[in-house]
Automatic annotation (TrEMBL):
Pfam families: Methyltransf_33. One of its GO terms (molecular function) is methyltransferase activity. This is L-histidine N(Alpha)-methyltransferase. PANTHER family: ERGOTHIONEINE BIOSYNTHESIS PROTEIN 1. InterPro entries: EgtD_Methyltrsf_superfamily, MeTrfase_dom, MeTrfase_EgtD-like, SAM-dependent_MTases_sf. Keywords: Methyltransferase, Transferase. The keyword Coiled coil does not apply. The keyword NAD does not apply. It comes from Mucilaginibacter corticis. Residues 21-325 form the Histidine-specific methyltransferase SAM-dependent domain. It comes from the Bacteria.
Amino acid sequence: NQSATQPEVLNASKNSAEAFYKDVIKGLQSTPKRLNSMYFYDAAGDKIFQELMDCPEYYPTNCELEIFSEKTAQLAKAIIGDGDAFDLIELGAGDATKSSYLLKYLLDEQIDFNYLPIDISISTINYLTIKLPLTLPGIKIKGLNGEYFDMLKKAAALSNRRKVVLFMGSNIGNMPVTEATAFCKELRNHLAPGDMALIGFDLKKSPKVILAAYNDSEGITKRFNLNLLTRINRELGGNFDLDKFDHYAMYDPETGACKSYLISLADQLVTIGKETIRFVKDEYIYMEISQKFTLMQTDQMASNTGFKPVSRFLDNKKWFVDTVWMA
Ligand code: AVI
């Protein structure tokens, strides 16, 4: 049976090139100019993000890795419920390094679950569906490539088991708070009572520590941001000159917003397909928000969006939290 041995991937991004073009043009024709950081993750962006996760200043990955590697049994206990089979759905799975601790534990304990990683990056999904069955024999995996809620709908159509949705890595921080709230509400709408969400939030801490993570000394974050311009050049026929843009990051301890910008170093015209975008010197493109939270704000987010916070897991430094919410 050929299909049993093939990685299972569902790909819903048919019109993705057109949507990417429209989004980029709309963002760059807005005042102020902006680009959506969801487009950071092409194959090159995935690689730069890996480098970033290995760099000493970028702490969130290590904090969450500590939680998943040292508190695996407690995490598992929090999501297993009464022991019935469930679907473990991971939004923005990345390379699943952290969740693999949980997956291995569940497999070792012979818990019946399906693992459904969802990621916007097809290269990530292809990698996971090939790699995980090798490193975690016996895992039942189905990769879903596309936007989170489109794929959650697909996941719901595939089974009516209890769902546990992982949304780790402080990915929720890449939305402004109002959008994150709307996101959690929509997530709740895709779930039934008894389903769960495990969400990773980066916590407020020393502003210097936070800023350094988004302004690393090796310039990896700068390359990560500039890579989106390279991607636009390649995929959308753009002519950005990367030497004419610099990276600027700032953290506001009051609001908890850490923001990244690309600053135009000159008056310049950039062509993308049939559109021309004018930049004046020092004009910025707003690239990304990485919102930081207090524990109280995470609880408020749960109750404002129809969830009940049931447990939370922190790293030793208390820099990062994985919260478990019940729908
Ligand atoms: C994926 N996301 C949670 C990262 C973050 O920390 O906001 C993306 C990132 N951007 C710059 N560094 C890392």
